[in-house]
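Hey, I was hoping to borrow your eyes for a little while. No rush at all, and the record is pasted right below.
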Amino acid sequence: MKTDIYDKSGKKTSKKLDLNKDIFSVKPNEHCIYLAMKSELAALRQGTHSSKTRSEVRGGGTKPWKQKGTGRSRVGSIRNPARVHGGSAFGPKPRDYTMKLNKKVKVLAKKSALSLKINSESFKVIKDLDIETYKTKDFNVLLNKLDLSDIKLTIIVNDFNKNLFLSSKNLFLVNMVLVNNFSTYDIMNSDVLLFDVSSIETLNKGI
């Protein structure tokens, strides 16, 4: 399977790039994609939420009034969860939300997500993404030439490029990731994928 390569002016070059069918053309497994995205999003949760139980709320050390003879209902503590200013009965407590996922499932999910984008032609390969400045307006010019402006875009690069990172980080619709640590969510949470040639060559070797 071959694909076109574009230059920074947005024009097709005379060269084409091979795509490994075992990476970019597998039968998509939507359930694996679901499991991977669920695990990745769960791992982003801090899990630091906490509410006070009746033993942690201030006060409630003594019985508010005697058990009998007052005509009122019996009460053992003013911090009972049923009372105003009482503790929480089943409130949230700190916890770890991470979910274990088998490595084979993670790999298949990434391959499936990539294959969905390739099959729908929601991708573009550029010769290189090295830019000379870190200005966002210059990066916007590049996107306009590639017809990728105002599109939810995930850029997958082989090596970290400081100018590319700085020029794209303020754009809400643009997400830059490295080819060695992108997630299934990064792929699915975009309308178009933008690769550089070196990242495709790395992916061709395997995930």
In short: The mean pLDDT is 92. The CA atoms of residues 136 and 171 lie 8 Å apart.
